[in-house]
Amino acid sequence: MEKANKGGFVVFEGIDGAGKTTQVELLCKRLALVGIPVFSTCEPTDGPVGRLIRRMLSGSLPVDQRTIASLFAADRTEHLMNPETGIRQMVDTGTTVVCDRYYFSSYAYHSQYMDMEWVIQVNRLNADILKPDITLFIDVDPQICLKRLQATRKHLEIYEKIDIMKQVRANYLAAFHRLEHQERVAVIDGNDSVENIAKAVWAQVCLVI
Q: Catalysed reaction(s) (predicted)?
C-alpha cells in the first residue's frame, strides 16, 4: 500500500499525571478539524488482558513484575493486530491513530525491576509490527505530577509514588537515548500551559503527518 494512503501513528508518553490525556484529546480535535481521519486509544487496553493488567496496577492482584511486563507486551500485540479494532489495520487504511502510552512506557516502568534490554526484547515483535511516526514525551516535574494525582484520585496505583516516578522519568530519558537512532522522539516541556504544550505538540506532529 502506498504511504500516501496510510494514516499516521502518534504516541504520547509521560509519567502518571503529566497531562497526556488532555493533549491526546486536543490533538485529535485539531486533526479532525483539518480533515484527517483520527482515532484515539490507550494502553493498557479495555480488552481481557488489559483489564487484568489494571487489576495488577491497582494492587488488588499482587504479581511478579516480569509477569506484568509480559502481559503488557501481549496486550500491546492484541492492540495492534485485533482484526476489528487493531491499530495496524487502522493505520494501513488511512486513519491516524493517537495512542496514550506504547512500548516506551514498558521500557521506563518495567526497567526499574529488570534489565531494560529484556523489556525491549519482549516488545520486539510489537516494534516490528508498527513503530510510531513520532513519540511525544510530555516532561513534567514528578512532584507536580504527584500533587495532581493526589488531588484527583482516592487511591494511587502501585507506580504512583514519588521515588518511582522520578526513576521512571530517568528511565524514559535513558530509553530515548538508547534508541535515538531507531525512534523519532520529541521531548516537550509539560510544565508550560496546556495551550503552549498543545502548540508544541502540533508543531511536532506537522513534521510527520
A: dTMP + ATP = dTDP + ADP
Q: What is the mean pLDDT of residues 80-95?
A: 96
**pLDDT greater than 80 at residue 64:** yes
Closest CA to 120 of 179, 164, 185: 179
CATH number reported for the structural domain that contains residue 36 in this entry: 3.40.50.300
Q: How much is the average pLDDT of 77-102?
A: 97
Amino acid code (one letter) for 186: A
Please count the structural domains in the chain. 1
CB 80 within 8 A of CB 61: no
Binding-site residue numbers are: 14-21
pLDDT at 102: 98
Helices 103-110 and 65-81 pack at an angle, to 10 degrees, of 180
Element (H, E) at 189: strand 185-189
Point out the annotated binding site for ATP.
Answer: 14-21
Domain span including residue 18: 3-205
pLDDT > 90 fraction of the chain, expressed in percent and rounded: 84
Identify the pLDDT of residue 1.
Answer: 35
DSSP assignment of 11-80 equals EEE-STTSSHHHHHHHHHHHHHHTT--EEEEESS-SSHHHHHHHHHHHTSS---HHHHHHHHHHHHHHHH
Span 6-19, pLDDT tens digits: 999 999 999 999 99
